[in-house]
Every structure is written in structure tokens, then in C-alpha cells.
Amino acid sequence: MIDTRIRLRNDAGRSSSYLQVMLRGFWIVAAGLTLMQWLPSANAQEPINSLDELKQQADKLTALYKDKELVASSELMNRCAQAFVKLLPTAPPKEAGDWRKVHSQIMPIYEGLLIEGAELEEFPSWPDLVKLRKKGGAAKGKDKETPEMSPATPAVSFTKDIAPWMTEQCSRCHVDKREGGFSIATFEALMKGDAGGVVLFPGDVIGSTLVTTIESGNMPRGGGKVSPENLAKLKLWIQQGAKFDGPSPQAPLATYVDRPMNANPAGTPAPETMVSKPTGKETVSFSRQVAPLLIDNCKGCHFNAQNASGRLRFDNFTQLLAGGDSGSLLTPGKGEESLLVKKLRGTEGQRMPAGGRPPLSDDNIKLISTWIDEGASFDSDDPRSNLEQISSKAWAQNASHVELMNKRMERARDRWKTASNVKDPSESNDDRFHVIGNISPEATQKLLTIANNAEAQVKKTLKISSKEPLVKGGITVFALKGRYDYSEFGKMLESRELPAEWSSHYRAEVLDSYVAIIYSGGADQDKNFEKVIESSLAQQIASLWVSSLRGVPRWFSDGVGRQVLSSMVSSGDARIQAWTQRIPVAMSKLENVKSFIDGKINDEDAATIGFAIVKFMNDGAKRKLFETMLKGLSNGVPFDQAMQKTFGPLEPFVKTTLGRDK
User: Fold this and answer.
1) If you classify domain 400-539 with CATH, what class do you get?
2) Fewest beta carbons within 10 Å, which of 148, 271, 292, 424?
3) In 3-state terms, what secondary structure has residue 184?
């Protein structure tokens, strides 16, 4: 076991933690930058005094920047930044969505001006502005839809006041499905958040993006608006600490909806100890043989169902074990006596599947019955994962690279129809990448070349010697030509507001293995632009690859991606500066290390801290340990074990690295 007490010494012989040294350097650099941030004409214009005026100036700024009027753009950028700092802290909560849209509009311009060498006042990230807003008191007593708390304020019940309307209005996308990687099928899933991280923070109404998304009207889709009364309850529940008052965080939300008094209290999932693992003697596989049958024959009624018939839902294995109003479906060891088999054979009640669908063949029913006879074991990783993901993962394990890539390309074309109104996107592909987007055919081909260069850079940086494609089945690159298109991609395909700081991101699922990126260039773009895009793609490709390894937490995969980018660019790169500047902010909000490890902080702060940790892991002689750890992960070693064998137990290591006692 190596010594994880990480110390650096200065000339006077005093020691400090790695992060403290890093932060000290940051403040010195920040102090120097501050001296250069004033433009002589910054005060030549009147200040912006309202949101409407800011919207007008933001449109003007967009036009100026597009016309390459860099001096005028810089002056107006500073005025817009001043307006955010001055006005947002006291802005009405109902305007939060508009403020965020303007922030998303001008943040890319701010980043572009920095790359051009402009000397600008700091334009805070959205999370930093939210923090400033809290200090300004906007969250206290100014939101008329959120009752102020007093000792007499009754507690809001999740099971009685929140779960019922969430089940009714959000089931189509986030209970029956997992759009955008976001599920609210259970309380545990709700608190886990979406593909981008946690969306609900106990005690923090303003910082909870779930509230912002509902207020902006982007959710729910097609199910009407959340009523002011229910939205107020949601805010008050979060304000009171988002406490859970149900029997089990893993119980389906649908079980909290009032049932008839004589109904069987079904739906409460069996404890994890009741999920049987295979012994190795089974002849039938749940993930490869049973799950596909359930998906194909039960879709719409019990799988991906808006209103599950008989309150029987099995979007995941835990729900399958739980059963429905008629009780348990499975009696392990007794296939023919199990309710599921009786329903399929039509020997008890209505034969399934119903709705005019043909009955299952005798061979298929026998397959399910045999699986139950053999113990109804679960042969995948997480019994709470969606059955479609479980089935796809099992299929992908035996599929060839080409078969999986063809499946992903087909999926990407279907996804594009949802994400964009451009009916005929440009496409280019080879044996590693499939580029699809609303850019020109020439630009698509150029981006394909850049993606291959980025993959080569990832392999070089992470010391991956294989000449095979980095990701089996390849990676889709969704190319969006502007900020608006990128934002709409997040809303339409992932049902979420993408952070304003992002210009690219990744998703690592079996069939949805992709990078989405803003690409406004053409085939004749200059080399500097290409390098910026290449480094961004390298960041996301590296993170996507690491995410595909066993048990890797999101903060680590994000940290590795950012480390790869940092190895390709100078320390003055705007992205590196933004991440470095965010470190003290993210650390100040971290209550304890366990909340970070468990993924209970917002995605951007987690990625920032992850970047600091991975950067430390790559410092000096420790680089060899990091390479050993990655090699173990790539050979199938679970993350916790790979960590234990190199840097030691995870939690003590993180505490020491961050200089935290708890």
C-alpha cells in the first residue's frame, strides 16, 4: 500500500496539501489577471438596468461578434457581465428561465473573445451567479409561489404531495421511459438525477435545475403545465430538505398513488437480498432470452407504459419481482405455478399479452418457465436498470464491432429525428465514428477527420497501445452548428437544460454512445479552430471510454477527459482557466467527501473536483500508478479494486488529496 499523505514543500520547509498549493497558485494568477481586465471605454456607455434591455443588448452583442467587431463586442460583453452581477441577485424568481437563456446566449461569445485575446471583466458561470443570487437574498421571501417557512409551516409529504402528480404528469418520459437519462420511477432514481448529474438539491430551490426546467415550460412535455399549487409544494418540499417519507426509496412512485382499500399492496420491491444471482448451472439467461421477450410482448401495458395495467410495471427487474395488484408474478423454483406463466398460458384470468396481440409460443413460455424453475436469477449488474438497457448490453457483448456500430448508426438517425427539425442531416462515417448533424457535407467529413485525430490523441495521452477502435461499436458525433441547436438537442433528446458552460458533452449507454458538440466551422477553418474542436472531442471521447469501464464513477470519467484536454492545450486556454477558477467555489460548497463520492453534488462541481483529483494522480511519479489503474480498468477490474491496488481505499485517498477531515 502506498502512502497517500500527499505533501509538497515550499522554500521555507512548510508543507501544505496538494489542493492548497494548487489554490494558492490560482489566486496569484487570478490577482494578476484582475489587473488586466479593464478596458478604457468600459464606462463609456450607460449601465444596463433591466432584463428587457439586457436581452436587446445580448442580441446586439451576438451581431457584433458575428461581424468580427471585437473591440465593440468586448465593451458590450463587459456591460452585459456587469448587468448580471448587478441585477440577477434581486430578480424575481419567475424570470430565472429568461436570465439563464441570455446567459447561455452570451457565454460562448465571452469564451470566444478570451480566445481572441480580449481583456474582459470576469463573466461568472451560471452556478456562480446562482450562489451570488442567494447572497443577495432573492431566494428568501421573494418567490410568491413558495410559502415562507415558519415553525407552523406543515411539512410537505413526498408520497402524498409530490409523487402522485409526478407519476401522472411525468410518467410518459421519466417513469415509463428514461428520457435524457433521467428516471423518476423511484425516489432513489429521482435523487440520482439525469445524464448530466443531480437535478434536485435538498434545501436549495434555486440550485435545483428540476424546478428551473419546470418553470421554463420545458417540462413536462405534452402533459400540461405543473399547477402553481404543485410547483409551490415542490419548492417548499425542497426547501424543507427534500425528505423521503415512504417505505422504501426503491419503491415505484406509482405505488404511492391512492389504491382501492381491498387492493393488494403490490409494487413494493423485494429487498436486494431477494435478487438471486446465477449459480452457473442455469440453461436460460434472463438478460439474453427472457428480457427481450418481455420487452417485445409487454410494451405499452407493463413495459414503457403510461398507465401500467393492474399497476404491474416491469421497466426493471426490481419491479418485476414486486408484482402488481394481483400479487407476485414469480415463484422461484416453481415455473408453472408462477402467476406470470399462468397468465401467459391463459389458465388464470385474462390471457396475456392482451390487446389483440398473439399469444407467446409454447417454446417461449417454456423458456420463461424454465428460467423460473432454475431460480429466476438475474444475470446483469443492476436490477434497477431499464430492461432495454439490460437486453441491449447482453446482446452487445456477443455482437461484433460492425454489428454494434450499425445498430448505433440506426439509433442515431432515429434520435436525430427527435432532436432536430432538419430532416436530411449530413452524415459521414468510418469504422470508428459516425458524424451526423445540421452542417454541410464538407464540414461533416472534416469533423470525421478531426474525431479520428482526437481519438489518436486520447490513446497517446492515456498510453493505449491497441490499434483497434477505442470504443467497441464506435462513437456517434452529433454536430450542432450553433448554441441554439445544441440547447434544443438537450431539451428535445435528453429532456434537460444543458449547462451554459458546455459546448460539448457525452453519453455512454449501450446504443446511445455519443458525443454532441457545437461545430460552426467549415472545411476551410483555420488550424486554431480545429485544435479547439479536436481537444474538446478528445475530452469527451476519453470520458466516454472511461465511463464504459466497470464501476467507474462519473466524476472520475469527467476528470480523465478534462485531464486529456489539459495535456493538449496551454495553461492559458479559457476552458482550463474556467475549471481552475471553479475549484475553490466547488470546494466551498462541498459538505463532506462522501457526498462527492456518492454523486450527490451537481455535475459541474463534481467534474471540477474530479479534474483536480485526476490531475494530482498524474503528477510526477504518480503517473505510473494512474497508468496501472487505467490498465486494470481496461482489463475488466472494477473501479474500487483498481483504486485499492494503486492509490489505496477511495474515501481516505480523496480526503487526503482534498485536504478534508470529513
Assistant:
1) alpha beta
2) 424
3) coil
